[in-house]
Amino acid sequence: MDYKNYRFSWLEIGGILGKTILIALIISYLFYGSLYGMAITPLLFVIVKRRKKKSCIEERKQLLHGQFLDGLKIVSTSLMSGMSMENAWKEAEKEVEAMHGKKSLLYKELKEMNHLVLSNVPMEQVLLPFAYRSGVEDIISFAEVFAYGKRSGANWRKLIGETTLRMEEKYETEKQIAVMLAQKRMEQNIMSVIPLGMIIFLRVTSNSAVPIPLVRTTISFRATINGLPSSFSANTPDIRESFQ
After folding, report:
1. Helix then strand then coil, % of the chain, to nearest 5
2. Do 17 and 45 contact (CB within 8 A), yes or no?
3. Are 192 and 222 in contact (CB under 8 A)?
4. What H or E segment, with its residue span, contains residue 207?
5. Residue 110 contacts by C-beta under 8 Å, 6 or more apart in sequence?
6. CA 102 → CA 113, 114, 146, distances in Å?
7. Per-domain residue ranges of the chain
8. For burial by CB atoms within 10 Å, which of 6, 18, 108, 218 has the most?
9. For residues 71 and 92, is the Cβ–Cβ distance under 8 A?
10. Dist. CA 38–CA 23, nearest whole Å
């Protein structure tokens, strides 16, 4: 599996299409008062699909990252208890199956890797291609360190233990940062809804299309919230001008 790409199922495409049509209907109602605005549906579909694909790729990478860290801790513990490298990865496969199930991303990868190791393929040659396919920085770094340790004859039991500890600390820090960013993003989305609510109110009460100056002012307000350059809204008319 190439984790840098994502293929939608027909059900997911149907959901994206439904979301796109709903957005197009809202735009048509608010800004045009007719179905002419539905003409932007194809363009909206491309934009929504692209954003959804990017989101799905990142979510899958985060899921794989967490599962890999769980598996790596099992490998490290097994090595410290005296197991061989091959048996440690087999033990990780069993534990990952118990923790995340047979359908989990890492279980499928470990099963394939252990099968190749049984065919006398060196573990580092199995781990590196998986790491590069994952596109996850920590997994790539671990695979490269692991390969170097095997070639140089280093104490790879100690090496894996220390690497696992550093990866776990980094992962927890990144999770905390992600939580804070998610909170800020939610606040930003709430603020972005305010001008849309103003447009809906005016559209419903006036029973006519929203004046273009107000639309431009709303876009400017959203741009300011989203951190776009102030020059974007420098020439935008004041909201009061739409009532003159």
Report:
1. 80, 0, 20
2. yes
3. yes
4. none
5. 71, 89, 92, 93, 96
6. 15, 15, 26
7. 61-173
8. 218
9. yes
10. 9
For residues 209 and 202, give the distance between their C-alpha atoms in angstroms, rounded to a whole number: 9
78 HSE (CA, 13 A, CB side)? 19
User: Distance (Å, rounded) from C-alpha 34 to C-alpha 234?
Assistant: 31
Mind giving me the DSSP string for 126-155? HHHHHHHHHT-HHHHHHHHHHHHHHHHT--
Question: What DSSP state is assigned to residue 201?
Answer: H
Compute the C-alpha angle 208/47/21, nearest 5°.
45
Q: What is the DSSP string of 77-100?
A: HHHHTT--HHHHHHHHHHHHHHHH
**Residue 138, Cβ density class (10 Å: 0-12 exposed, 13-18 middle, ≥19 buried):** buried
d(CA 35, CA 151): 66
Give the model confidence (pLDDT) of 136-187 as tens digits.
888 898 888 888 877 776 677 777 888 888 888 888 888 888 888 888 888 8
pLDDT in tens, 190-232: 887 777 777 777 777 765 544 444 444 444 444 444 554 444 3
C-alpha 36: how far from chain center:
34
DSSP-based three-state secondary structure for 202? helix
Q: Which amino acid is at 99?
A: M
User: How does DSSP classify residue 32?
Assistant: I
Prediction pTM value: 0.72
Q: Assess contact for 57 and 3: CB atoms under 8 A.
A: yes
